[in-house]
Each structure stands twice: as structure tokens, then as C-alpha cells.
Design brief:
By secondary structure, this protein is of the alpha+beta class. Helix content is 51%, strand content 7%. A 4-stranded mixed sheet has the order 2-1-3-4, with helices on one face. α1 links the parallel β1 and β2.
């Protein structure tokens, strides 16, 4: 199998961290240079027609894209340690937390970075700086909500580390491109949680 990833992009990192938490090895990782537009080359578009990464190429030649779908496949392929829920009820609540982070924190923060960071101008044309700044505001609103959650529970989805923590951590780390630091916004629980996750070996994946 092959996993197509790229440097600094948060979604490939989510899969890499997910694999590291589960101790999954033996999957070849292929680096895709986004700045060189390798994700738009014909060979890659044949695998990922929407030019998105990450992509998991299975041994039988089928190709699976979208981060959550890849992680769902990996969870079934190697079930332990469990990161997505043991029961239907637990799976639902973990997915709710993960989706909230993905849609209401990661997406607006990514839009803010894409539309305001000069280094991403080649990948995001045209850039709309005003839109980017408005999206940063929405991301901060969600970060404040998440800080409140982490004041009453140790992990994003509750009492244990899950895929929702991976999504949130990769998002906060990606936010460094905007010089986002939770403590500078009074989000001390979020910062303490971030530091706790950063100490896990998987954070270096």
C-alpha cells in the first residue's frame, strides 16, 4: 500500500498521526510537492481527480481519498488501539466531536491561512484577504468553545484520546502559520491540552 502525503498540510498529518497512534507500519509514504503542483499532474489526478491529499492506494489498486474515510478503513484494518469508538453510541459522539473540529475550526482556519498567507498565494488564486480575516474570527469562536469543553473534560471527545484529538491537534499546529497561540487568546485549557498531545510520540509522525 501507498499513502500519498505532503509536508506541513494538516490532513495528511492527521492520517500519519492516526497510523502512529495505532502502530501501523509497512505502508509506503509518497511525498507530493504541492508547491510544485505535483497534485495536479495527470498521474496523480488519475488517483485523486479532485487533486486532494491524502490518498491511500490499496494493494488491489483501488484508491481511497478523504482523511476520515482513510482513517475509517485503517481502524477496521487494525482495530486496536481503538480511536473511533467501540460501540455505536461512542462512535457517534466521537464523530460529532471530530466533525465539529473539522468543519468549525479546521476549515475556517485553513481558509484564513489560504487567503492571507503570502506563501500560499501560488496555491490559492485569487486570494481574498478580507475573507481570510473573517474566517479567522470564526475559527477563534470555535477555539473558545473548544477551550470550554477542555475545561470540563480531558480530551476533545470525552474521557479518552480519540481521532477528534488528532484532528484538533493538527489544526492547532497548522494555525502556527497564522501565529496562532491559544494562550494569547486566553485559551489556557486549549494550550494545556495541546502541550499534552504534543508530548505523545505520534505528534512527531
Amino acid at each position: 500500500m501507498k499513502l500519498y502525503v505532503s509536508q506541513r498540510a494538516p490532513n495528511p498529518r492527521r492520517v500519519q498521526m492516526f497510523m502512529a497512534e495505532k502502530g501501523i507500519t509497512g505502508i509506503e509514504q509518497v511525498m507530493v510537492d504541492l508547491n510544485a503542483h505535483e497534485h495536479r499532474a495527470p498521474g496523480f489526478l488519475a488517483k485523486s481527480p479532485l487533486a486532494r491529499i491524502p490518498v491511500l492506494e490499496l494493494d488491489d489498486g483501488r484508491v481511497l481519498s478523504e482523511t476520515r474515510a482513510i482513517c475509517t478503513w485503517l481502524e477496521a484494518w487494525q482495530s486496536q488501539p481503538n480511536l473511533m469508538g467501540e460501540t455505536a453510541e461512542e462512535r457517534a459522539f466521537i464523530e460529532m466531536a471530530d466533525r465539529r473540529v473539522e468543519w468549525y475550526l479546521m476549515l475556517p482556519l485553513a481558509n484564513a491561512i489560504r487567503h492571507t498567507h503570502p506563501g500560499l498565494a501560488p496555491l490559492e488564486q485569487p486570494q481574498f484577504p478580507d475573507y481570510g480575516q473573517s474566517q479567522l474570527g470564526k475559527a477563534l469562536e470555535t477555539a473558545a468553545w473548544l477551550d470550554g469543553e477542555l475545561q470540563r473534560q480531558p480530551w476533545v471527545a470525552g474521557d479518552r484520546f480519540t481521532i477528534a484529538d488528532i484532528t484538533a491537534f493538527c489544526t492547532v499546529e497548522f494555525g502556527k502559520l497564522m501565529r496562532f497561540k491559544p494562550t494569547e487568546h486566553g485559551l489556557h485549557a486549549l494550550q494545556a491540552w495541546r502541550d499534552k498531545v504534543a508530548a505523545r510520540p505520534s505528534a512527531q509522525a
